[in-house]
Please model this.
Amino acid sequence: MARERILVVDDEPAIRALIVPALRNDGFDVDEAPDGETALERFRSREHDLVILDLRLPGIEGLDVLRELRKASDVAVIVVTARAEETDRIVGLELGADDYVTKPFSPRELAARVRAVLRRRSTASPAGAPIDGAMRFDGLVVDPDRHEVAVDGAPVDLTSLEFELLGALAAAPGRVFTRRQLIERVWGWDFYGDERLVDVHVRNLRKALGDPADAPRFIGTVRGVGYKFVATRP
Model:
């Protein structure tokens, strides 16, 4: 069985020297890059399962690297920021990052997050399976078997994480989910991050679906609690 391959992008040799051996000891194949240009070259030259991406890079900045990755691929991405860089962290999530870690961090914590993201990705329903489990609502079809979504008959492109989040909500129409419950269902029990991560991905999901928060067709906000799926079946 082929080992999963990780690309570590960080301009600090000491950080790479900390991360790379830890991931290799954990059973991953690892490539590394000291800057954005090298990262994109190495990503294009071979297939990777996950990218660990520092957002503060010389030359091509990390957020621009993430934009380029998202143009070409739905590869899993964990962004790395300093504690004071909350704005960059939120933008990274809005651009489609799966998770984030803040410096300083332990190699054990990072490896746990890598495993959690890859495990969630591996349990997503494969595309191309027979159509037998589609969830149909007024204006929306969610097909877990084909990993497809359509709004008013038009296909919608979602990241894997956005699809899993939508699927979790749509599977229980009317049920109110707290952020922690959504994290447990979508990210996994061993998720270490800030629960506000859910808000960012719900915002991304609403944007992709054309679903305004102030007049939702699909995802409603329950103030002080979390979110619920509000669409009705035809």
User: Anything to note?
Assistant: Residues 107-122 form the longest helix (16 residues). Helices lie at 13-25, 36-45, 62-72, 86-94, 107-122, 160-170, 179-187, 196-209. The radius of gyration is 18 Å. Residues 125-132 have pLDDT under 50 and may be disordered.
